[in-house]
Amino acid sequence: MLRATLLAASRSPQSRKLIEALPPTRAIVKRFVAGDSLDEAVTVTDELVGAGRRITLDHLGEDTSDAAQAAATAEAYEHLLAALKETGLADRAEVSVKLSAVGQFLPRDGERIALENARRICAAAADAGTTVTLDMEDHTTTDSTLGIARELRRDYPWLGVVLQAYLHRTEADCAEFAAAGSRVRLCKGAYKEPESVAFQKKSEVDKAYIRCLKVLMAGEGYPMVASHDPRIIRIAGQLAQWNGRKSDSFEYQMLYGIRPEEQQRLVDEGATMRIYLPYGNEWYGYFMRRLAERPANLAFFLRALATR
Ligand code: FAD
């Protein structure tokens, strides 16, 4: 119930105004977001790379309803990728892109515009010597996003996709995307989805995650295990071992600011550990999904409000 309310608020302009105006919000957002600017994003990337992490950078923004804004987002990614190349970070840091931020929801030609903007970003990544992963948004976009991914992969076979274990369809999608050279980030899924398309209970989502992970680990692709869940992380390690995978043939992924000690433990074990690092001032939707995921994050936010 609380999760559903917070996820509904994550798409409400009224809630956005209210939350953004609250005095302690900024300080708490800082826990999950590198900063507003490109420079701050590069500085934090450099620190994390120095501490043995790989990075995937997200220029925050989603649900763009303006073609000029979509093009500006693609340009921001081009600047980011040029900066990663210049600073020598591109061999450790890639980018994550939400297609809705580059035009997917535009009423006229949205898919085509998103494809063209994503292609610009892929070209800049290829020039920098790094890769791109397409984030996955709510289920109404899954077919469109995977279609655009298939198209882009003709020229950029390293393009990563995200599959969400809570969707009933995902086990079949894993089978398709477990092919050689394919980079697949498996996550549980962060949006409010109806029963008709998604498992609702945590226990069902967890079981689906393991079924999907078995397919990916047994396949010929490169699985990216995106979860903070200790049980999932343990099982992923076992599955990798059973399938004879070395630490460079799969990776763990976690969000910036979440379970840093566990990130360090995995790095110390010799695992490949990538951090999803968002930056920019369009943090509202991302931040609300983090509050929805974990009551402790919400409690922290409410405590900060109460102590002011
Ligand atoms: P949960 O089921 O949320 O938590 C399980 C357990 O993990 C908890 O009981 C606790 O033991 C531990 N845990 C979780 N959070 C914390 C914490 N803050 N501190 C301490 N312990 C904690 N979703 C999408 O829909 N699309 C995407 O493109 C996408 N990309 C992602 C990229 C990355 C790198 C990651 C890590 C997640 C991404 N997600 C994405 C979000 C994902 O779908 C989940 O909503 C989110 O990761 C929460 O699920 P979980 O697997 O971490 O476990």
Sum this structure up briefly.
It catalyses: L-proline + a quinone = (S)-1-pyrroline-5-carboxylate + a quinol + H(+). With 308 residues, the protein is an alpha/beta fold. Helix content is 50%, strand content 13%.
* Oligomer type: single chain
Which overall shape is indicated by the principal axes computed on the Cα atoms?
globular
CATH class: Alpha Beta
In spatial order, strands of the major sheet run 1-2-3-4-5-6-7-8
Biggest sheet, open or closed, and with what strands and sense? 8 strands, parallel, barrel
Question: What structural class do you assign from the helix and strand content?
Answer: alpha/beta
**Helical residues, percent:** 40-55%
Number of helices: 13
**Tally of discrete structural domains:** 1
Keywords: FAD, Flavoprotein, Nucleotide-binding, Oxidoreductase, Proline metabolism
InterPro entries: FAD-linked_oxidoreductase-like, PRODH_bac_arc, Proline_DH_dom, Proline_oxidase
Domain Proline dehydrogenase: 47-300
Pfam family, one: Pro_dh
Walk me through the topology.
Layout: H1 2-9, H2 13-21, H3 25-29, H4 38-50, E1 54-59, H5 67-86, E2 93-97, H6 110-128, E3 132-134, H7 142-153, E4 160-164, H8 170-177, E5 183-187, H9 202-218, E6 222-226, H10 230-242, E7 251-255, H11 260-268, E8 273-279, H12 284-293, H13 295-306
Parallel strand pairs: 1-2, 1-8, 2-3, 3-4, 4-5, 5-6, 6-7, 7-8
The protein binds flavin-adenine dinucleotide (FAD).
The site of flavin-adenine dinucleotide has 24 residues, from strand 4, helix 10 and strand 7.
Would you give an account of this structure?
The protein has about 300 residues and is of the alpha/beta class. The chain has a single domain (about 35-280), classed as TIM Barrel. About 50% of the residues lie in helices and about 15% in strands. It contains 13 helices and 8 strands. The protein has an 8-stranded parallel β-barrel, surrounded by 7 helices. Helix 6 (about 110-130) packs across helix 7 and helix 8 packs parallel to helix 9 (about 200-220). The two termini are about 25 Å apart. Bound molecules: flavin-adenine dinucleotide. Flavin-adenine dinucleotide binds next to strand 4, helix 10 and strand 7. Keywords: FAD, Flavoprotein, Nucleotide-binding, Oxidoreductase, Proline metabolism. Its EC number is 1.5.5.2. It catalyses: L-proline + a quinone = (S)-1-pyrroline-5-carboxylate + a quinol + H(+). It comes from Streptacidiphilus monticola. This is proline dehydrogenase.
